[in-house]
Amino acid sequence: MVVAATTRRFLKDYPEALIGGGGAVFVGAGVSMGAGYPSWASLLTEVGEELGVKPGELHDLAALAQWSIQENGSSTQVRNVIKEQIGVEHPVPATLEIIARLPVKFIWTTNYDKLVERAFGGINRPIDTVSGTADLALRATPGATRLFKMHGSVERLDDVVISTDDYELYRSKRGAFLPLLQAHLSSMSMLFLGISFTDPNIRHVLSLIRESFTSAPPEHFAIVRPPQREDFKTDTEFEARTTQHKLWSRDLKRYGLVVVEIGDYAEVPELLRQVERRVAARRVWVSGSWPPEAGGEIARVYNVAQAIGQLVGDSGRDLVSGAGLVVGSASIAGFLDALRSCGGWDLERRLIARPFPQPRPGEAPDRAQWAALRAELARVAGVVIFVGGIKIDPATGSPVIAGGVLDEFEVAKAAECFVIPIGSTGGAAAQISDSLIGSDVDASGHSAMRPTDDELRELARADISVEEIVKLITEVLTRIDKRA
């Protein structure tokens, strides 16, 4: 399949923005409609019928809500409709589940529902919801993504934007949102999902960009489905809408908006999964262990892990670690050395550590918790490097293969990570290396999940130096980058 130039550009530039902490998302009504919530027109059908307005006769839905409020003397009816229709919980769509896993710090929406909050809650990721101007003054939760609900939330129906008055008085009542949105549009790359650029709210958002940048605006992306023949009754109507779409798409360049066209909305999750995979490819999980009391090759294992951590930092990648014995601390030490050498301590963004809780003497570890941590580490990492992998058998006091590292290998394969065992460091890494050589796990092409047999044999060579290991891993990582 031929991939459009704008799609290639999106898959290259937007993941880079996310990796650098400069990616944001704007969630429009189309995402909620795809989850089962009504469109604005459907939502206000009953309200319109009571006023004698038939469905399809009026496109200014804010005016319809305004007339209902004037006719009834209050907004109670309109807000009851919102509560009944939007207050129900429809399944969270795959699109938002993926968004919740991406390193997004800021999400904007004009939707009232709680789909985004529930998507984040599904993976226990913290999110701060800002649905009123007073919320903007609250201290942000450390590490939480901020969700700005520009038009309010179903939880606070007394403060939602719905009528003509609400829109016209937006700057006086909710205007504190606008400079912040303008700042994000000016300094970040925004991905627009499920939006219609005929929406007056979206047009206002675009006008904010124009206010700040008369030329060379920041680059943003919008995933859009162009008109399809099956959407229209006649060829003439289809051709007219297609022409309008092409002109509209070109006009969006004035706002720095790149239109990424899809044939069907069902393509959006897979497109976002590609973004997720490209972000993950820049994250390296160094897995392994080597208890100090095991002795043996501990100095070599430490040096290899430290050198790999240094390589991860020097190459601008993020380090993922479960803080395993010796290997974890060594890789983190090397990573920190790399950050110090370039004058940066961007640890909050670039070091993703999930230490495994160790049981008290005489108690068994929480296997379910450990399994969940391994799954999370594999989910956020695209590359897993195995170093060593030894533990002490409590029954004999002798060193044995660390079953946990083998478990991490299986989890990494299930998550389709690229796995690189350093066989020369022994332990589980050697066993993993042996199992991959000659296996049917792809070693070439876009689906590659491991080095070639020759590279694995080289990494398993007993006399290979640390410098040679680093050089070979660098070549493999460069190949992964080109593949992505």
Automatic annotation (TrEMBL):
Domain NAD(+) hydrolase ThsA Sir2/TIR-associating SLOG, residue spans: 267-479
Pfam families cross-referenced by the UniProt entry: SIR2_2 (PF13289), STALD (PF18185)
The organism's place on the tree of life at top rank: Bacteria
The protein's name in its UniProt record: SIR2 family protein
SUPFAM superfamilies, alphabetized: DHS-like NAD/FAD-binding domain
